Amino acid sequence: xxxxxxxxxxxxxxxxxxxxxxxxxxxxxxxxxxxxxxxxxxxxxxxxxxxxxxxxxxxxxxxxxxxxxxxxxxxxxxxxxxxxxxxxxxxxxxxxxxxxxxxxxxxxxxxxxxxxxxxxxxxxxxxxxxxxxxxxxxxxxxxxxxxxxxxxxxxxxxxxxxxxxxxxxxxxxxxxxxxxxxxxxxxxxxxxxxxxxxxxxxxxxxxxxxxxxxxxxxxxxxxxxxxxxxxxxxxxxxxxxxxxxxxxxxxxxxxxxxxxxxxxxxxxxxxxxxxxxxxxxxxxxxxxxxxxxxxxxxxxxxxxxxxxxxxxxxxxxxxxxxxxxxxxxxxxxxxxxxxxxxxxxxxxxxxxxxxxxxxxxxxxxxxxxxxxxxxxxxxxxxxxxxxxxxxxxxxxxxxxxxxxxxxxxxxxxxxxxxxxxxxxxxxxxxxxxxxxxxxxxxxxxxxxxxxxxxxxxxxxxxxxxxxxxxxxxxxxxxxxxxxxxxxxxxxxxxxxxxxxxxxxxxxxxxxxxxxxxxxxxxxxxxxxxxxxxxxxxxxxxxxxxxxxxxxxxxxxxxxxxxxxxxxxxxxxxxxxxxxxxxxxxxxxxxxxxxxxxxxxxxxxxxxxxxxxxxxxxxxxxxxxxxxxxxxxxxxxxxxxxxxxxxxxxxxxxxxxxxxxxxxxxxxxxxxxxxxxxxxxxxxxxxxxxxxxxxxxxxxxxxxxxxxxxxxxxxxxxxxxxxxxxxxxxxxxxxxxxxxxxxxxxxxxxxxxxxxxxxxxxxxxxxxxxxxxxxxxxxxxxxxxxxxxxxxxxxxxxxx
Length: 799
Prior knowledge:
Blueprint: E1 41-45, H1 50-61, E2 64-66, E3 79-83, H2 85-92, E4 98-104, E5 107-112, E6 147-152, H3 153-159, H4 164-167, E7 174-176, E8 186-188, E9 204-208, E10 211-212, E11 227-234, H5 238-241, E12 248-254, E13 263-273, E14 279-291, E15 295-306, E16 311-312, E17 323-334, E18 340-353, E19 366-367, E20 375-390, E21 393-411, E22 425-445, E23 451-473, E24 480-505, E25 508-529, E26 535-555, E27 561-571, E28 574-575, E29 589-590, E30 593-606, E31 611-630, E32 636-656, E33 661-675, E34 695-707, E35 710-721, E36 724-725, E37 734-735, E38 738-749, E39 752-759, E40 790-798
Parallel strand pairs: 2-5, 9-12, 16-19
Antiparallel strand pairs: 1-3, 4-5, 6-11, 7-8, 9-10, 11-12, 13-14, 13-40, 14-15, 15-17, 17-18, 18-20, 20-21, 21-22, 22-23, 23-24, 24-25, 25-26, 26-27, 27-30, 28-29, 30-31, 31-32, 32-33, 33-34, 34-35, 35-38, 36-37, 38-39, 39-40
């Protein structure tokens, strides 16, 4: 047993179905009434304080214990002998000022006895009070040497944060470009390789539960429906998550079936936008136990219309940027015993935008483009997760198949002279279909000992088919292909990873880990053009390396934590193709890049837990930075632009009063510098990373109070994004900073109620993105104005 001085008030032991805490705890899966510990346990717990006695009980029973610190006073009971966990807790807490509840197999929550006065509803707005699994273990983020933020599903629903873009303001260091739905790119800590997505792998790994969703694609823009929480781990996570986690991990954790009872909810939204088309959404979920405490199913679905707000004066079309999004998810959970769990998931989403969101300065919310520029982004996936626990270890197998397909059409008339002389207009068509087969096998230690460990094996087989075409609009033949590149990539990645942590001394923990990986990428391409001779390409690239991680943390008796960590992220290289004219030899390939992160952080709790502060400073060195760029003709290619150094700080502050007021503030400051430029790329390398403003900040204020049987909640949210360069070229335009805001009022009772909200209440039209069409970048500056003031109403009801 650990010395009492180093025992933490919350013992966290990974169990089958525990994944999150909201307020004190949120149960992942849940519903089972069985105790995960053996039927009878040999206890030896001396007379001591209730907190210490509960810690001893949890360690000896090997269960998760939440909230032992709420039980003050001294126990008069000694536990000795063989008994069940229920009997031990009942006996220990007979005269205690607290009680216990089994919240999931192997997880016990300690709660204070209710006071005489009626309890008021707890605000869903919170920060850093969730257990997270972003580090491959169930942990309280306040006890991790990682900058982790988790937003519970209740907070997302209370604030109307339905996707990554809308939730970004609640997460320090998280940015999302605004090219349009299904086209955006997530960025963490300003570690940006550019605003567009191309051949370079995404710097942020996007996950749905245990399975990655993207390779080099834009964010799929999943609507966050029936989610347990959203997790963000900032900084390179290559040791645990591999090549897609250069700057961090973004995870949507779904709500699993409740095996104990029926449940359902439906929500409907209608909104109107000044000068734009109407918007609306319907979403809901239903939970059905198939076999009580053994198996259950949970089904969720949604359909949404985002009304357009831009008018095209050339095409004489109104509200051209209308978007539809619909999707569904089915999860089946089977838990035949306390030691076995099987979860099966099938999910999909379809997104269609009728046009892009950019325009030109001086046009207001109008645009002048010769042809429509629609976009589609579809994703489907099937996953299976199996967990088996025994003794001091737990084995988890996560398998998945993901199909991600997205298409875009651009007005390319400005560059059609490269391919034809007689076309009236021309369009450039991009189509990409990525198929991923993923297997992740991880073995972790269980218990609260001084030594903890994990080991994993990972394998992924990805195929990417990305045909592109230049379509000329001839008077005699519309959509005639005058150029095409039929490109196919096959990427295989295998890796072995692990981590060991050891308590060197009371409250001091040292951890070391890493990932040994091998990536093989084969590229085949067939280029045809009316003006130039066809050509073929078949090239294979291989990369093998090691990504380390090392950390040291100090836990204080108050529950505070200080840490330092050094971690790395990496991406493999690849091959360029396409273009009517071949690239120069030095640009035919691009090399791997690597980012090393040096970080120090502090996590504090004050004022009886009402004040939380999480802060970190970081210094990153990015070697041979990859970026997706465009030739003068608009055709994309990938290159290594040079090195970059990033010095930054970020902080999250949350304060909650006893009268229902909650405030959350977050901010990020960063200074980026580029050096050792690739002279073949540009002679005017910008001195900061594109799409990486020096400052970004967010604020979320909430106030609630009871009104009879109802609860009234008022929410205000604001975000500021500073100005930033658009590309690595110093001669390119620079985006302006902008602020966005949202106001919301909710009236609810027993799972039913309504919300009224206003977005962009000041009707600002500031630019939120400054580069929308690579085939027309030099004709005029491009901007994406904010959606005009929008007023909406949401009705909801649940069982």
